[in-house]
Amino acid sequence: MEKIQHSHVQVQGLKLHVAQIGTGPKVVLFLHGFPEIWYSWRHQMIAVANAGFRAVAFDCRGYGLSDHPPEPEKANFNDLADEVVALLDSLAIDKAFLVGKDFGAFSAFMVAVTHPERVLGVITLGIPFLIPGPLGIQLDLLPKGFYVIRWAEPGRAEADFGRFDVKTVVRNIYILFCRKVSYK
């Protein structure tokens, strides 16, 4: 079996970490959510490659092994969608199936709406399709305690995570996503 290959590509002035496997003529691009990186798609990437596709995942700007944007406070979902299109260009991919989870789903929707000629299909997890528009209107549809709403308030995420040491935060995140947990 092939191994997942890793590289870095320059996209919009940032160095992005990319993971790829498979050599099929059709491409499936996986878009992670919060608080994830490309690695959350590793099992799906292998399955997709074994089915004859080229599977690609990357660490979005500011995540994993990718560069952080110089002014993260100015970032928006349009930037993430533009990043996906620029990544496709950088990897010489004309069209791809987009698979997104969480904010990766927002990126997939935005690319499909703004660049339909680049998209073979869209699959999303956890987020229903919302017509692209002012984010404030869409945020009103989310539950009040949802992290996107909660952490939109400046300093709130820092305060929430600041109550715990790094080990506790990482442990709690893994507990949420793992089937078996050792409490030792």
TrEMBL record:
Gene3D superfamilies: alpha/beta hydrolase. One of its GO terms (molecular function) is hydrolase activity. The keyword Chaperone does not apply. It comes from the Eukaryota. Keywords: Hydrolase. Residues 27-130 form the AB hydrolase-1 domain. InterPro entries: AB_hydrolase_1 (IPR000073), AB_hydrolase_fold (IPR029058), Epox_hydrolase-like (IPR000639). Belongs to the AB hydrolase superfamily. Epoxide hydrolase family. PANTHER family: EPOXIDE HYDROLASE. This is AB hydrolase-1 domain-containing protein. It comes from Gossypium trilobum.
